Amino acid sequence: MSEIDSLTGQPKENDTILFAVPMCAPYISLMHCNYKVKLQPGTQKKGKALSMIKELFSKNPSIPTREKEMLKNVPDEECTNTLIASVKVSASGLFDLKAKKHKKKKQQKKNAINIDKKPEAKEVQPG
């Protein structure tokens, strides 16, 4: 058995995972892989797309901790080299992630406005 034959897109519980390999291939050929996102031509830059993909995988509760660590340890440069130039990312759970981010950002903005509108203490002149 050669080393290339030992690579899998579906690790089992008793497998020893040494590293993760980022791939860019036609989506249909990656159907057997556990962790995948669909890339389409779009307007998003590689770096932003990569951070979104990594966040999506790190926030996914169904991914075991050990596998999340392996995904985090893949160098960003190695991942960006596999991505296409201007991209649109599609994946299950991505809409929920974006909605949570938007809600959090909106709440932070609201909190910042409330802090700015604190009532000022009035000085009382004696007399």
* Rg computed from alpha carbons, rounded to a whole number of angstroms: 22 Å
Encode the helix/strand succession as letters: EHHHEH
Helix share of residues? 40-55%
Number of E-state strands: 2
Key phrases:
mainly alpha; 9% strand; 127 residues; elongated; two-stranded antiparallel ribbon; 41% helix; single chain
Lay out the secondary structure.
Elements: E1 38-44, H1 46-59, H2 65-72, H3 76-82, E2 87-90, H4 94-116
Antiparallel strand pairs: 1-2
What does this structure look like?
There is one protein chain. The termini are far apart. The protein has a domain at 27-114. By secondary structure, the chain is mainly alpha-helical. A two-stranded antiparallel sheet has the order 1-2. Helices cover 41% and strands 9% of the residues.
Structure described in brief:
With 127 residues, this protein is mostly helical. The chain has 4 helices and 2 strands; from the N terminus they run βαααβα.
